[in-house]
Specification:
Layout (H helix, E strand, L loop, with lengths): L6 H12 L5 H8 L3 H13 L19 E8 L5 H12 L4 E6 L6 E7 L2 H14 L4 E6 L13
Antiparallel strand pairs: 1-3, 1-4, 2-3
Helix pairs in contact: 1-2, 2-3
Length: 153
């Protein structure tokens, strides 16, 4: 389903990105509308696939997940069977927050959040025991300078 967005839709989406726990009344006031039209627009945005899910963001460090690694993976295998096995392994590992297939010299990049270096090594050992990988480079993030899920509407 294709959804056409107008300025009010974009304002609603901006407010939801900023804080999805806001009441419909708050959002309506901020976008210059009333509660029922805002509710109807949000429902249409959900039905149209623009809003995929609503969630909360947890503070990883406050919960003890102090290490963030970016894992660069090169593989010599590109068959469908290998890719399915690799994807299954990634989906089963809650440490993997993001996974991207890349163009260029590196085939995949993963964002992995763990408690410490030992936990990363356990993740790494489990991954390579499940899937054959040619080369893995792990980069430890020393400081997160910016992190957002907000799209520039």
């Amino acid at each position: 389903m294709s959804v056409r967005l107008d300025e009010i839709d974009r304002k609603i989406l901006g407010e939801l990105q900023r804080d999805a726990s806001q009441s419909l009344d708050e959002i309506a006031r901020k976008v210059g509308s009333s509660k029922t039209p805002v509710w109807n627009r949000i429902r249409k945005l959900k039905e149209g696939g623009i809003i995929r899910q609503q969630t909360v963001f947890l503070d990883a460090e406050a919960l003890g997940f102090e290490a963030c690694f970016f894992v660069l993976i090169r593989t010599s295998e590109h068959e469908a069977e290998w890719q399915q096995k690799f994807l299954k392994a990634l989906k089963e590992r809650p440490e993997v927050q993001e996974a991207h297939r890349l163009a260029g010299d590196i085939d995949y990049i993963l964002k992995v959040r763990v408690k410490n270096a030992r936990a990363y090594d356990e993740f790494y050992q489990a991954l390579i025991s499940e899937v054959r990988i040619y080369n893995v480079t792990a980069l430890l993030s020393m400081e997160e300078l910016k992190s957002t899920t907000m799209l520039p509407l």
